[in-house]
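Sample entry (268 residues):
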Amino acid sequence: MNDGRRVLIILPAWNEEDGLPSVLREIQAQLPYVDTLVVDDGSTDNTAAVARAAGSAVAQLPFNLGVGGAMRLGYRYAQQHGYDVAIQVDADGQHDPAYVPALLERLATGDADLVIGARFAGDGDYQVRGPRKWAMSLLSVVLSRITRTKLTDTTSGFRACNRPLIEFFARWYPVEYLGDTIESMVGAARSGFTVRQVPVAMRARTTGRPSASPLKAMVYLTRAGLVLLLAMIRRMPKELKAFAPGSPSYDASRRRTAEQLGRELTKA
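Predicted structure, serialized as tokens:
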């Protein structure tokens, strides 16, 4: 799929030197029309070096800020380099790049600014249990009401956004725990951006170990509730209205993408 849009895949990475080369090779083989940016999130291993050796652009943070901090830097890179689409993909191999065209096609319909790759929407057999499942189900119900669409996986880190939302996220992106998933989605929806989802299957990670235990699940449930509450009551910066739906900036960005798609269809 190469419809004229400039696509950047952002991979936040913290000590991912073992699995990152194979992940990048797979992306390059399946998606030769995209660029990749590895955001080295204060790694203490050779994450940045192996990413450069694999042919990816690299941005480095001096300290570990978490996924939110890494993605904020990634969106600023995408905005400054004029990309039309930014896609977040985990560096541990869990996200299958074969689903990227589905995310791009959903964005191309024009009725979505943010597309979530949902693990519980029909594809694959990914499962969670106990308090973690309760938290994710509750979040899906609440965020479905906020975004006015059915969402089944609001904590998925496999997501794509268009140029208007890149402009928005380059200026505002929460870095707190779960800010990269829950709060960013709530902030985007409250500002008028449209959220949709497509089904994806989740793979087993190639490196590292999942953090799953009853105690950690209860902690996750509590923290997820607090993050959602904070997202609902926190005031959005007024200056972001200049980039939200209905603004001249938003309309210009959407028009630019539509014109590019039109030119590519004419060539075809």
